[in-house]
Design goal:
- The protein is an alpha/beta fold.
- The chain folds into 2 domains: about 350 residues, ABC transporter transmembrane region fold; about 190 residues, Rossmann fold (3-Layer(aba) Sandwich).
- It contains 21 helices and 10 strands.
C-alpha cells in the first residue's frame, strides 16, 4: 500500500480535488440508496398492503435516517388519503425519477473532478520522471537500457493511469455504497443481515488469492515489455547496419523470442484477471441463494416481523451489494499491475543524483587563470582495480590549447569528461582558478564550456533551433554569424527553407560534415571561454575535415581548448601535447619536441604518416 499512496501523492494539492469529489460521491451514493428504499411503499401499493384508515403523525426534525424515513411515509400517506392509491403510486414514481436524476447528476459531476485529478496525477508523474532522468548522472545511463527507460516513461505511466489512478473511484465510492446498503439491510432485518455477513468473507478470500498470483505475472510482464522496447529501439537506431549485414532474420528471431515470452505471461495474467469477475459473481449468487433460503424461512414463519415486500426489497438491496463488491475485487486485481509499474517508476524517481550541487557550491561567472588536474584517479565502479586514470597531474593555463593523444582506451575522453563533471574523479581534484569543480555550481561550471564531440548530437528540429539550443532569446543575426564562422551558412541557405529547415531525426537529412559544422556553430553561439573538442573530425572525409578544421581554428581562437584527436596532423598547432597510455601521462611537450624525443608520440606519428 505504500507504493499506492506514494503514487496518489502526485495528486497534490489534494484540496483541489478530494473535498469536492468526496461531497459529490457521498451525495451520489445517498440518492442511489434512496432509490431502493422507495421500493417498499411501491410494493405495498401493488400488493394492497397499506392501512389507509390512520395516517402517521408528522415527525419532529432529527438528523437521522429514521426521521427522513418517517417524513417520507407521512407525506406518502397524506397523498394516498387525498388522491387515492393511484396518486400514491404516481408520488412514489416521481420521487424515484427525481432521486435517480440527482444520483446520476452527482455521479457525473464527481467523475469530472476525478478525471481532472487523474490527468493531473499522470502529468505530474511524467514530469517528475522526465525531470529525474534529465538530472541523473551519465553512469546511470551506462547501466540502464534506453528502451527500458522509454517503457517506464510510456507504458508504465499508462499502466498506473489505467489501474491505480482509475481505482480511486472504486476504492472511495464503492465502499461507501456497500456501507450504505448494509445500513439499510440492518434497518430491514438485523438477523438476516448478520447471517449474510458470516457467508460473504469466503468470496473475498478467493479473490485475494488470485490477486497475489497476478502480481507475480505482472512483475515478469513489465520486465519483458521493457526488453521488447529496448530491442525495438536498438533495431530502429541500427537499421542501416541490420540491412547492411543482412541481419533482419537474426533481429526478428531475437524479437520474436521475447515477444512470445511476453505473450505467454500476458495470457496467463489476463486469464487470471478475467477469472476474478465470473468467480466473484458465482460466489455472490451462491450467497444470494443462501439469503433467499434463510430469509424465505423467516418470512414463512408466523412469528417473523419481516413482511413479503420487505423481503423482496431486502433481496434487491443485497443483490446490489454484489455490484460494488465485484468492482472492488476487479479493481484490486487490476491494481497489482499498476503497483508493479509504479514500483518501476518510483525506482527511477528514488535513484540518488550523485553529481549535483552541494550546500556550499559557489557561483562562478568567469574563467581567469588555469585548470589544474591534481592527483586525479578515476574508475567507473568504486572498488574497481582497473583504473581508467591514475594519479594525473596537469595544469592548463588560460588561452592555451592542450591536445590529448594516445591509443584507444588510454583515458583521453574520460579525462575531458571529468572537467564538466559528467563524472566525478574517484580520487584527487580538478580545480578551476583554484576552486575544486565539485564546489562550483553545475550550471555555472558548464556555462563556461563548449563541447563538440565525434558524434554530432542534433535534434529533430530546425537548423535555427539546433544552433540556438539551450540559448534563450537567441537573435537570428547571431545565429547566422555563428553559422558563417562554422562554415555552415552556405549549405544552410541552399536548403529549401534555410534556417527553418527541419534536419530530421539526429540530423539524418544532413551529411556528417554538415552535422559537425552545426555542432560547431552551436558552440560558437554559446561563446564559451573553455572548449572541449573530442575527436571532432575523426569521422569525416578529407573535404569535410578541411572545412570543419577551419571552423575549429576560428572557434579556438583566443580560447582555452582541450583537444582529443587520433589524427595527429590536426593538433600540431597545440601549445602542449599530452600523451596518455593506460591512464597515465607518459609524454608531454610541443609537436616538435615530442618528435625529437623519438618516443611513443613519434611512433604514433610515423604510423599515421605511413598510412
Amino acid at each position: 500500500m505504500k507504493t499506492y499512496f506514494r503514487l496518489l501523492s502526485f495528486a497534490k494539492p489534494f484540496g483541489r480535488f478530494l473535498p469536492g469529489y468526496g461531497v459529490l460521491a457521498i451525495l451520489a451514493v445517498v440518492f442511489g440508496l434512496l432509490n431502493f428504499t422507495f421500493i417498499i411503499p411501491l410494493l405495498n401499493i401493488l400488493f394492497n398492503d397499506i392501512d389507509t384508515a390512520s395516517a402517521p403523525a408528522k415527525p419532529e426534525f432529527a438528523l437521522s435516517l429514521v426521521y427522513f424515513k418517517d417524513l417520507f411515509f407521512y407525506h406518502f400517506h397524506a397523498v394516498i388519503l387525498s388522491h387515492g392509491k393511484m396518486g400514491g403510486l404516481q408520488f412514489v414514481c416521481a420521487i424515484i425519477v427525481a432521486s435517480f436524476f440527482l444520483s446520476n447528476l452527482f455521479k457525473y459531476l464527481s467523475q469530472r473532478i476525478l478525471t481532472a485529478m487523474r490527468t493531473h496525477v499522470v502529468r505530474n508523474i511524467r514530469q517528475e520522471l522526465f525531470s529525474k532522468i534529465s538530472d541523473l548522472q551519465l553512469d546511470f545511463f551506462n547501466n540502464e537500457r534506453k528502451g527500458n527507460l522509454m517503457s517506464v516513461l510510456s507504458n508504465d505511466v499508462q499502466e498506473v493511469e489505467n489501474s491505480v489512478v482509475s481505482s480511486i473511484q472504486v476504492i472511495f465510492r464503492e465502499p461507501l455504497s456497500i456501507i450504505g446498503f448494509f445500513v439499510l439491510l440492518f434497518v430491514i432485518s438485523v438477523k438476516l443481515t448478520l447471517f449474510t455477513i458470516l457467508v460473504l468473507p469466503l468470496s473475498g478470500l478467493i479473490i485475494t488469492r488470485i490477486s497475489k498470483s497476478l502480481r507475480k505475472d505482472a512483475i515478469e510482464g513489465q520486465k519483458q515489455l521493457g526488453t521488447i522496447m529496448s530491442l525495438t529501439e536498438e533495431a530502429i537506431s541500427g537499421i542501416r547496419i541490420i540491412k547492411g549485414f543482412n541481419a533482419q532474420k537474426f533481429v526478428r528471431e531475437k524479437f520474436n523470442v521475447e515477444n512470445n515470452k511476453y505473450m505467454r505471461t500476458l495470457k496467463s495474467m489476463v486469464n487470471k484477471r478475467e477469472l476474478a469477475s465470473p468467480l466473484s459473481e458465482f460466489m455472490g449468487i451462491s450467497v444470494v441463494a443462501c439469503v433467499l433460503l434463510y430469509g424465505g424461512s423467516l418470512v414463512l414463519s408466523d412469528q417473523s416481523e419481516l413482511s413479503g415486500s420487505e423481503f423482496v426489497t431486502y433481496v434487491l438491496l443485497f443483490s446490489q451489494i454484489l455490484v460494488p463488491a465485484k468492482n472492488i475485487s476487479s479493481a484490486l486485481t487490476n491494481i497489482q499491475r499498476g503497483l508493479v509499474a509504479g514500483e518501476r517508476i518510483l525506482g527511477i524517481v528514488d535513484t540518488p543524483v550523485t553529481i549535483a550541487d552541494n550546500a556550499s557550491s559557489k557561483t562562478v561567472s568567469a574563467f581567469n587563470k588555469e585548470i589544474e588536474y591534481r592527483n586525479v584517479s578515476f574508475a567507473y565502479t568504486k572498488g574497481d582495480e582497473g583504473w581508467v586514470l591514475k594519479k594525473l597531474n596537469l595544469v592548463i593555463p588560460k588561452g592555451k590549447t592542450i591536445a590529448l593523444v594516445g591509443q584507444s582506451g588510454s583515458g583521453k575522453s574520460t579525462m575531458a569528461d571529468l572537467l564538466p563533471r559528467f563524472y566525478d574523479s574517484t580520487e584527487g581534484d580538478i580545480l578551476l582558478d583554484g576552486v575544486p569543480v565539485r564546489d562550483i555550481k553545475l550550471k555555472d561550471l558548464r556555462a563556461l564550456m563548449g563541447i563538440v564531440t565525434q558524434e554530432s548530437i542534433l535534434f529533430n528540429d530546425t537548423v535555427f533551433n539546433n544552433i540556438a539550443f539551450g540559448m534563450e532569446n537567441a537573435k537570428e543575426a547571431d545565429v547566422i554569424e555563428a553559422a558563417k564562422i562554422a562554415n555552415a551558412h552556405d549549405f544552410i541557405m541552399e536548403s529549401p527553407q534555410g534556417y527553418q529547415s527541419n534536419i530530421g531525426d539526429r540530423g539524418a537529412k544532413l551529411s556528417g560534415g554538415q552535422r559537425q559544422r552545426l555542432s560547431i556553430a552551436r558552440a560558437v553561439l554559446k561563446n564559451p571561454p573553455l572548449l572541449i573538442l573530442d575527436e571532432a573530425t575523426s569521422a569525416l572525409d578529407t573535404e569535410s575535415e578541411r572545412l570543419v578544421q577551419d571552423a575549429l581554428f576560428k572557434l579556438m581562437k583566443n580560447r582555452t581548448s582541450i583537444v582529443i584527436a587520433h589524427r595527429l596532423s590536426t593538433i600540431q598547432h597545440a601549445d602542449e601535447i599530452v600523451v596518455l597510455q593506460k591512464g597515465e601521462i607518459i609524454e608531454r611537450g610541443t609537436h616538435t619536441d615530442l618528435l625529437g624525443r623519438n618516443g611513443t608520440y613519434k611512433k604514433l606519428y610515423d604510423l599515421q604518416a605511413f598510412v
